[in-house]
Amino acid sequence: MAVVTDFDTGEQRLTAEWRDALRGFMDYVHLEQGLAENTVSAYARDLDRYATVLEARGVTTPVLVSQADVSALLQLLGELGLEASSVARNLTAVRMFHRYLQAEGRIENDPTEHMKSPKLGRKLPSVLNIYEVERLMVEPDVETPLGLRDRALLEMLYGAGLRVSELIGLERMHLLFDLKVVRVIGKGSRERVVPIGSEAVAWVNRYLTGAREELSGPASGNTVFLNFRGGAMSRMGIWKVLRGYVRNSGIDKAVSPHTMRHSFATHLLEGGADLRAVQEMLGHVDISTTQIYTHVDREYLKEVHRSFHPRA
Known about the structure:
mainly alpha, DNA polymerase, domain 1, hpI Integrase, Chain A, 2 domains, three-stranded antiparallel beta sheet, 14 helices, 56% helix, 4% strand, elongated
């Protein structure tokens, strides 16, 4: 496996100062620290995103980075739906990078010195209720190609409980709609089969036979969900699409693509689904990961009791 150390892919978006500092750090952790290639590649991706976000904030060199800039990155990652463990790994990469620059004499102060890693303890996931899901689904203008794509995208996120990375990786061969299932390639390249309802099937089919043909281009391949250039959608692109519809619908909650997955699991459990079945559909290896949703379900049951029990 090749270690990712090229920070010039795509357009030249990073300044020479950022590229030089990043390459020096990657050589350091790879050659001097001897870190595993998977770890080095993950750090390279994290730091490439870090530098890109900071450049967008006007920070054109590592010398200018402040603690507020690092906090802005962590806030963005949280808004994108990354888990606390992923945010913590990003902060570790950023912290190592600045300590390296400080040791090399390139910067005087480490902007991460007084920053704490996000707590990894579990919290109840944010979910939409069924009424809010319905409000969200009717927001896209399905008379336009992008609106029809977005309706199909939202139906798939909620109807199959997919991770955003799984949605991005969907290809037409994965859609076994005659069986009302979807083949999903999840974390660690593990494959699972997820049932999908007739509503999502209908909207995705409508998109495939109409809007997708209008959006497709030379780079489309078999990818299901395309951007307006005909390429595969990105995590950021899907997050922006969802955020726009949430805002327009008047839903007053912080909603990410992962919220749709949380809602999928919660509504199944509220309807009486077996925890093991939900575990299988979500692709969780450890059932303790799925058990977090039972807390949400218990809150629902308590609300039902409060609302309808004569002695509550």
